Amino acid sequence: MKRTICLLCLLLLLLGTALAEENAYDLPLDIYFENYPADPAGFTETTYHDDSLDVRIETGNFQGSDYYVAYFTVKSPTQFRTVTAGRPNENVTALPSEMGRQMNAVLMLNGEFYVQRTRNIFIYRQGQEYRNEPDPVKDVLIIDDKGDFHIYTSENKKEEIQAFIDGGGKIINAFSFGPGLVIDGEAVRLKKDYYFVPDEYRARSAVAQVGPLSYAFIYCPVATHKTMRDISAKLNMQQSYNLDGGNSSVLMFNGEYIGGKSKKTEREQSDILYVVSAVAPD
User: Fold this and answer.
1) Domain boundaries along the sequence of the chain
2) Which of 45, 71, 239, 251 could form a disulfide with 258 if both were Cys (CB 3.0 to 4.6 A apart)?
3) Cα dihedral 265, 268, 271, 275 in deg (nearest 10)
4) Residues 44-69: pLDDT tens digits?
5) DSSP character for 15?
């Protein structure tokens, strides 16, 4: 009997240790949580490393278009976050660089400037529902509690998203800009009549999933939707989704602009995506 109890205690101890290790880097979902500052010693010019986060910046050229890719791998999906300049649905804007600085972002990408659109959008930020009316045309990206991407493109996406929720899916962040560029490793056939001037050459931003807890921010100073899709496919992204472009596009690493952007050309916006360390300072 004593031996059985000892074995049970040992199993409980091992289980508790495993759970503690699994959740050691989880951060609160609260959108205004004061994130840990990054370790200054973890930075080089193009990389960052600590026990919870790896980042590397790469550059390339595709058919004459320069592009910049910020790869990052996190230990917890809670390190890949969003923030808005104001309270939910409040028409407030701020410079992305300032939002990133306030959130202690290691890496930051512009969002979708959602307050510019007043209807027919599906928006979540850090687990909180902002708007719940998907546009039949605009593609929707959902990032779930495991950090996995789900891109919805059909006219019936409202029913499909509800089925995801009914099946136990938990939405942490959701975007209604698009289009989806790569879905399940396959380049998407783009619609010629999609929103956001798909065939014009202008700055573009995209967010992508490479694999479990592994992602990329992609910034191209001059591109079309097709360019961004083809770059995403070339880089073997499993999921890739277009975000706001033009003067809204901005990628920053360690507080520095990537790809020629500057303070003079930065536009105030309503929201950003960003990545933080989950290592508490000593």
Assistant:
1) 2-275
2) 251
3) 40
4) 999 999 999 999 999 999 999 999 99
5) H
As given in the structure block, the two tokens for residue 118 are 């007043």
Cα 190 to Cα 183: distance, rounded to the nearest angstrom? 12
Q: Left, alpha or beta for 15 (phi > 0: left; psi -120 to 50: alpha)?
A: alpha
Phi, then psi, of 70 in degrees rounded to 5: -105, 100
Quickly state the pLDDT bin for 85 (edges 50, 70, 90): very high
Measure the CA dihedral 209/164/87/53, to 10°: -30
Cβ contacts of 78 within 8 Å, gap of 6 or more: 25, 26, 27, 28, 29, 278
Alpha carbon distance 188, 228 (integer Å)? 11
Q: How far apart are CA 121 and CA 61, in angstroms?
A: 33
DSSP secondary structure, 131-187, as one string:
EE---SSS-EEEEETTS-EEEE-STTHHHHHHHHHHTT--EEEEE----EEEETTEE
